[in-house]
Amino acid sequence: MARYRGALSLGRPFFAAAAVARLGVAMSGLAVFWAVQGASGSFGRAGAATGAFAVAEALVGPQIARLVDRWGQRRVMPVTTALFAVAASLLIVACAGPWPAWSMVALAAVVGATVPAVGALSAARWRRVAARRDGDGTAGILTVALSLEGAVNDAAFLAGPVLVTTLGTVLAPWSGLALAVSLLVAGMTGLLLDSGSEPVPGGVSRGVLVDRRLLNRGFAALFAANLALGFFFGGIGVAITAFAFAHQAEALSGLVTAAAGAVSLVAGLIYGAVAPARPARVMLAAGLVLVAGCAMLSLTPAVAVMFAGYAVVGGCVALVLIPGSILLQRAAVPDVYTQAMTWINSASALGIAASAPLIGVVVERHGWSAGFLVLAALTACLPVTIAVLPGGGPVPPTPHRAD
Predict the structure, then answer these.
(1) Using CA atoms, how far apart are residues 43 and 37, in angstroms rounded to an integer?
(2) Do the Cβ atoms of 88 and 49 come closer than 8 Å?
(3) Domain co-membership, 126 together with 181
(4) What sequence ranges are listed for the domain Major facilitator superfamily (MFS) profile (predicted)?
(5) Cα 43 from chain centroid?
(6) What SS3 state is found at 332?
(7) How far apart are CA 268 and CA 291, in angstroms?
(8) Which of 173, 204, 235 marks a domain boundary?
C-alpha cells in the first residue's frame, strides 16, 4: 500500500480524471452498437458501424498521437475531443431520428477516429512525473503507476458494458452513448486542466506514418505481441459464448468473462506491489499460460470448470499488459511515447478484428472445442514474440529533458 500511496501522491489529479474518461472509452464501442441496432433494428448495420468505429480508431489514433507528441496534449486534444463530442452527438440524433443507415456508419467512423486515447495520454503523464524523482526508483514508480492504470482499465471494461446494456434496456438504445460522451468530455477536461503533469512536446516527428525512432527491435516485438494478444481478446469471447450455448447456459457467458476480469485486476495490483525486476520473464510466463490454458479449455466438461479455468487463464492478461507497458519505456523515448502507446493499442485492435470473425466461423462449423484450439494456435504468437525482446534485465530509470 505504501507503493500505491507514493504513486498516487504524484499523479492523483490527472489519474482521477483519466479514470472517468477511461470509463467513457470502455463504453463507446458497445454504445455505438446499441445505438445503431436500436435505431435500425439490424444487427448487420450495427456490426458495420462498430467495425467502422474500430478500424478508424486503429488507423487514425496513432496519427493523432503523433500530433500530441509534437505539439502537446493541451494544444491537440481539446480539438479532437470536441470533434468526438460533436460526431457522437450527431450519431445520437441520427439514431433518434429517421437518418439513413450509411450516415450512422459514417458518423461511427468519425467517432472512432477521434475518440481520445486516454490510456496513452495518462501513461505519458505518469512517465513525466515519475522521471522527476531522483535516484533509481523511477522504474519502480512506473511499475506501480502502470499497475494502477491496468486495474482501472479492467474495472472500466467490467463496468462499462453493464452500464451500456442497462441504460439501453431501461431508457433508450442511444442513452449509453450519451453517458459515454459525457464521461469522456468531463474526464478529458479534468486531465487537460492539470498542466503540471503534461509531457513536454517533442518537436517535429521523423518519418511519414511511423516515427523512425520507433523502428527498433524492442518496439516491433511489443507490437507483434499485442497483435497476438488481440487475437486472444477477439476470439475468447466468441469461444466462451459458443461453449455457454452448447451447455444451455447462455446467460452465464458474461459472468465467466467478468470473473476472469476481476482476477486479472487483482493480479495486476499484486504485480505493482511486488514490482518484479525482470518484466519480460513475467510476460513470457503469462503468455505461455494463455496458450496452454486456451488449449486445455477445449476439454472443459462443465460450466463450473469453465469458471475456474478461465479465471486462471484470463487472470494472466494483466501480467502480459503491465510488463509490456514497462518494457515500452525502453523501446520508446519520451518524444514518441504517446504514439508508441497508441500503436500498441492499434495492434491489439487489429488482432481483435482478425480473430473474432475467424473463431466465429470455426465454432459455427466445428464446434466450441475447435474454437479454443484454433485460438490457442493464434495466441502462440504471443510467447514467441516476447522471447525475442532485446534484453531481460531490470528497466532503467527514465531519462527526461529539463523543463
Answers:
(1) 6
(2) no
(3) yes
(4) 175-403
(5) 24
(6) coil
(7) 19
(8) 204
Q: What angle do CA 160, 162, 168 make, to 5 degrees?
A: 100
Q: d(Cα 203, Cα 241) in Å, to the nearest integer?
A: 47
Predicted model pTM: 0.80
Residue 401 is assigned to a structural domain of this protein: no
98 CB-contact burial (10 Å; exposed 0-12 / middle 13-18 / buried 19+): exposed
Residue count of the chain, please give it.
Answer: 403
Residue 309: inside a domain, yes or no? Answer: yes
Q: Which amino acid is at 59?
A: L
CA distance 297 to 307: 10
Provide the pLDDT for residue 153.
85
DSSP-derived secondary structure for 119-170: HHHHHHHHHHHHHTS-SS-HHHHHHHHHHHHHHHHHHHHHHHHHHHHHHHHH
CA-angle at 211, arms to 208 and 214, nearest 5°: 145
Note down the domain range covering 174. Answer: 1-204
List, for residues 99-144, the tens digit of each pLDDT value.
888 899 999 999 999 999 998 898 888 888 877 664 444 456 777 8
Residue ranges in the chain whose pLDDT is less than 50: 134-138, 392-403
* pLDDT value, residue 206: 67
Domain count, the chain: 2
Q: Are 242 and 333 members of one domain?
A: yes
Smallest CA-to-CA distance from 148 within 233, 273, 24 is with: 273
222 and 186 part of one domain: no
- Tell me, what CATH number does 215's domain have? 1.20.1250.20
